[in-house]
Give the backbone structure.
Amino acid sequence: MIRKSPTPLALPEIVRIVGADAAYLYFYSESTERLHLKSARDAEGKEADLALASAAVLERVRLSREPFAVSGDAAGAEQLDGSPLPPRHMLAAPLLLGHRFFGVIYLDRPLTRGPFTQDDVDILLAIADHLALALETAHTERLEIERNTLERRARRLARSNEEALDASRAKSAFIAHMSHELRTPLTAIIGYSELLEDEFNDVVQAGSFIPDMQKIQAASKHLLSLINNMLDLSKIEAGKMELFLEEFELGEVIDEVSMTARPLIEKNRNTFASRCEEALGPVRLDRVKVRQVLLNLLSNAAKFTSSGEVVLAAHRTATDHGEQLVFTVSDSGIGMSPSQIKRIFQEFAQGSAATTRRYGGTGLGLAISRNFCHLMRGDIEVESALGRGTTFTVRLPVRLAEADLEPPWRSRPPAAWTAKKSRSRRAPRVRGLPLDRVSPSPPAGQPASVAPAAASAIAFTAAARSRSHRWPAT
């Protein structure tokens, strides 16, 4: 509860009570260790002459914390600590409460009225104590008001933070649900378009439809990759992205990534070179995420390089924190300016609006790649210059143990994936798209299974292979 501060006496009242000519109130600053004039008034409430106050008397009281009375003379011969005293009677008392020093109250009057007496000193000390108590109470009131204000702000911030977390959770749940719902029909579209392309290859008259089928597949796969990126981003923001640690040969992953990225790189008349150590050996990391990081970097290099070169290099190196893997993806493409480099790892950020219009993309690949590297206790760096190409460097530990991780993580694939793998050596595929990778995260509460539309695509494949009806050949 806030205490009501006692009403301090006004300076004109103090002047009248003690019989002074003027009163000066000085406050002490702990930061500067100096006294600062707050107010100076005479008996009528008018501003007093500041030139009449003695700095030497004020300094004596500040240092001694004791009341002090002294008189000058008309000739100005009297001195205090080497400073001449004004031709006045002077009395000053400290404003003390316990050990806390608030300032000084200073009184003076002309020599014609006689010096200050001990009774005057006692009266001024009582007034000083009253003023110190009032100042302390006012200070406490300000602190309580500030504390209450801060508490209200903290409560508002806590509510705002909780609302933001609720909104983020709702957004993540919505994205995860919608991603699953969108990927299911997309998988079926990709599957059916590939089946139709196979059918058209057997029919001479239908050959003109093949480019259309290929366009449908390309657009569907592109949309599917965007949906997967959005799902990954929502998992990262919600702190639910998991690591599936396993031991694997790094060379195999590099070969897979090179085979996948080579057509993208050569599409823009680029040359691709892999300069990796032959004996990279086994590693223990999240295989899927390592593959996705490298593929994202190579895809970026392919997109922004034309009639140039893209190079993937990898080697092991010893550091103070143990052995590390170092991957570099270099290109001779358009490069980036320093301002573009600063925001290149931000979500939905790209080099510029012109770059987005010309090359497309959502600006999520690098943000997701850096988050994947951080999850695996590594990092990704970039060096670039406009017109001189770009080099991304990824550093990851060779072996990642569960003790190095913070939840959430898993050291082995989920049970549903293991069960599917135990039933068959290979997961069902729709031309290079494993169905267990296309729909890895069904909505909460539903069992992990192949999406219905995707399953129908597989069934359609089997039926199409077995049926005897074909397009009539001409």
In short: The CA atoms of residues 27 and 167 lie 51 Å apart. The radius of gyration is 41 Å. The longest helix spans residues 118-201. DSSP finds twelve helices and 16 strands in the chain.
